[in-house]
Amino acid sequence: MIQKMKSILCSAMIATLSSMPLMAQENNPRLIIRADDMGSFRSANIACLEGYKNGIETSIEVMVTTAWFPEAARMLRENPGVDVGLHFTITSEWDNVKWRPLTHCPSLVDENGYFWPMMTPRKGYKGRSITENKWNLTEIEQEARAQIELALKNIPHISHISGHMGSLAFAPEVEELMERLSKEYNLPLVDSGNAFEKYGLNYVRYDGPTGTSAEKEASLIRTLEKLEAGKSYMFLDHPALNNEEMQTVGHIGYENVAVDRQGVTDIFTSDKVKQVIKDKNIELISYNDLTKSLPRGEANKKLNKAFNKYLNAVKQAGQDLHSIMIVKDGKVVKEQWLGEGKRNVPHILNSVSKTFTATAIGFAVNEGKLKVTDKVISFFPDKLPAEVSENLKKMEIRHLLTMTTGHDKTVNVRNLTDKEDWVATFLAAPVQHEPGTFYAYNTLGTYMLSAIVQKVTGQKVIDYLYPRFFRPLGIVGATWDESPQGINQGGWGLYLKTEDLAKVGLFFLQRGQWNGEQLLPTSWIDEAMAKQTDCCPTHMRFDNITENPKNSDWLQGYGYQMWRCRHNGVRADGAAGQYIIILPELNTVIATTAQIDDMQAEINLIWKHLLPALK
Asked: How many beta carbons lie within 10 A of that of residue 615, not counting itself?
């Protein structure tokens, strides 16, 4: 938890430089600050993280063939808020330190088995570049796959691929190959020949001399002052430290590496540079923002007026709303962050987490790893109580999904301790009713779903979801708290950004389809969103309900870890005001984060002020 808070605070520091919604910043310059070559040296690892934690960096490119990659991977896992790219490497330019390929690539290496030092002919390195030798495309593909897969294995939140020394596009057939791998792995290429045109990105350099830290700072500031409103830019350099390690690094024509790269670290953490970014209203963005943000549209006058009335009503009601995003017809038409809410800082989701765990079950079912009719006890034969009741024997995965496990009184997860096995605690609880016949909100039951996914896949839910769900949707920086047994909590503990919630809502609205690809079968999405059972408000029983169903969004039915709600909607919701509201008839998604205890009052304001304007 301490490490999570540190990573969230790091994101918050960048957020203070850029906290306005994207729509509000359409006329502001947008800028990626990119740090290259993490993993190459320990000094680079330290400096790259320093530039993110205490500076202006938004994206870090990591090399996986290098000696310091294991440390870099650990550091990046500990800081999930930073955007990370695989820096595809097939050259090893330094004279005193070398790296080799991960695979057998005789056409890419010198007589000692190291990558050739240069990509193209260079003075002092005659005959020792990739393009001067007969490289093999098959070898490049196998090496690229190996680097991508090693990177994703160790840093699941990698969002894109960049090229070290032009490795992505030094020949047309290489660029075609990398485009194909980019689509296969859902990792956009950001250094390919058409990437800048595709994403409307402009590459900017220092505007002036760069011999010293002071010169670099002044030249970068001049560059920043010339950025134009409404355009997107990328600035990159290679931070490191001027220490004994880096003082041994260099090649012919570039000998002052340590001093030069310390200067980069200095400007990436410069207070003067930060102030210029703030004064010029420059929006710091990441590659993931650039390549996988939801498209923006314009709200009509009716919705604009209704949205303002809604925000005023929220204020008058004393509701602590942190963010709201409205997606209409596939485009973000309204977005606002308030109070503690920040665009690029993950927010606690509480029980919205449940919908993500159920989605992981959907993927596992689709892949044939389990069935919803599988018995729960079959997964944990070593954790069963001494006497297994008939009702416990009958409990199936579908009963966990629909909160119909048969427990009359569920375990309060707030009472769980670090000394007990949470799976064993669940299995030991009395099951008074036959599963499928009695609804009771059961958060520990969702934890069991998470444990089952981990059991059958060998992966934590968060890691299982990354390639199948998070990466296609462009969700990065997710964190999920764990039990003492190292299992994602399932029913709670997930942190994501508001736009991530909106993306997930749109995914369900599109019945499991994303960018033309069917990620989950429509049949699963329809089952998840349909009413599977009657339900009642959390921590209540059917025999003490006093609300009228016409006025309650907690009496409309329950699906697979999702609530039905009024106006033929369905939602994921989490304590204190976290919502993903899906309105199929209006082709609309509304996502919120908040600290609001009365969630019925929160959604009532949405129905009162926003719903009519969305019709």
From this structure: 10
